[in-house]
Amino acid sequence: MLSAHEQVQDLLDFIDASPSPWHAVQSVETKLKAYQFVKLSETAAWNLQVGGRYYVVRDDSSIVAFVQGKKALVDTGFKLIGAHTDSPGFRIKPNPLTALDGLFRVGVEIYGGPIIATFTDRDLSLAGRVNYKDADNSIVSALIKFDQVLLRLPNLAIHMNRAVNDEGLKLHKQMELPLILSTVVQDYLPAHYFSDLLQDKLGCGVDKLLSWDLAVYDTQKGVFWGSEQEFFADSQLDNLASCHAATLALLNDDVLDNDSTLVCAFFDHEEIGSESNKGAEGSFLSDVLQRIAFSHAYSAEDYARALAKSFMISADMAHAYQPSFPLAYDPDHKVLVNKGPVIKINASHRYSTESISQAQFIDWCAQAEVPYQAYSHRSDLACGTTIGPITSAKLGIRSIDVGNPLWAMHSIRESAGVFDHHYMIKVLRQFFIA
Ligand code: CO
After folding, report:
1. Measured in angstroms, how far is the CA atom of residue 137 from the centroid of ligand 1?
2. Of the residues 57, 211, 343, 429, which has the fewest C-beta atoms closer than 10 A?
3. Residues 6 or more apart from 296 whose CB is under 8 A from it?
4. Model pTM greater than 0.85?
C-alpha cells in the first residue's frame, strides 16, 4: 500500500497528465489497463464474463468502469462511486483569434463557475480534443496538449486600478478575457495562424482540421506545501481528486475479486448542469447498468431488484473552513483540512445524503478507521450541488454525497490535505469490500 504522500504524488502526476476532461478519461484508462480492464464499445454487442473487468467511454470525456461480481446482481446490487471529470475555466471560441493593437488574442468563453480573477498572471496553455481528416479522408479525433506556456491574461497595473484591493478584481467577460497569444505576425490571417498552430502540433496536413474542443489549463505542476508538507495545491482538484481516489480504491486485486458488481462512473459536464448525452443527467450510466444486467439475461424486474439493492457514493470536494473568513461558514459545521472525509447534508436535497446512507457511511469509516466530518452550508447562502441527487433520482438508488475538504474551490489553484486523500481512498475501498 502506498503512503499518504505517495498517493498524493500519484494524484498530482494524474492531474499533470489530465489538463482537460478528455485527457482525464485517458488517464483513468491508463490506470485501468494496468489492471487488465477491457474497453467495450457502445456500438458492439457485449459478452460479459463473471469476474470480468470492463470500461466504457462516451464521447471521450465520460467513463464508466465496472467489475462483474461473482454473485447474482439481484442479491448484491451495484456498488457505485460517481464523480466528475470537468473543472470550471475557459474554453476557446470557434473563431478565436483577433488582431488588436499589435497583438493576436484568443477569445474565450467561460465554462462553469471559475473564480475568474485567479486566471490572471498564470502560465496558461491549451489542451483538448481536435477532429481532422486523415490521409484516407476519414474523420479522426485526437487529443492535443501544448506543454509550453502559450497564453496569458496580464493583470492591469495597480496604478490604473487603484481600487483593486478594496473592490476586488472585476473582469468584463467579453472585453477583458481574451488571452494574449503572440505579437501580430504580418501577412498572416488570424484564423490561419491559429489553425496552423494546431496543425503543426498534430502533424496533420494543411486544411485538414475540422473542429475542436479546447480548454485553457495552468501549466504549473502540483506541489506539496506546509511546514510538514501536509497540504497540496494543484488545478482541477475539484473533482479529479475524487476520480483519482475512487480509481485507487477500485484498483486492488483483493477489491477486484468481489462478490458484488463494482462501478466507477466519472462524468463530464457536472460544472454546467450535467444535461448532455454524457453528463449525469444523460442516459450513459443507466444504459451501461442495464446492459450489464441484460447481458446476463436478467428481466426488467430483476434489474429493478438489483437497483433497489444498490448504493452509490457521490464523491465531490467539500468547502474546507478557512479561518480568515469565519462568517462564510456555519459555525457549527466547520470542516477542517486533514480531519477526514466530509458527509454533505442539505435539507433541500442539493446533496443526496439521507440519514440511512449517512449511517452506512459512518459505519464504513469506523471499519476503515477513518475519521469523518459533517457539513451543512450556511442557511443564508445558496448551496451548490453534485451529480449525487441527479443520479440517485434517475436510477432510484440510495446514495450519499461525500467529499474531501478543499480550499478555494473553483480557483485555478485549489488546496487540500494529504491525509484526507489517503482517508478517502481507504473508506471508498472499505465500501467496495464491505
Ligand atoms: Co465538483
Report:
1. 39
2. 211
3. 48, 73
4. yes
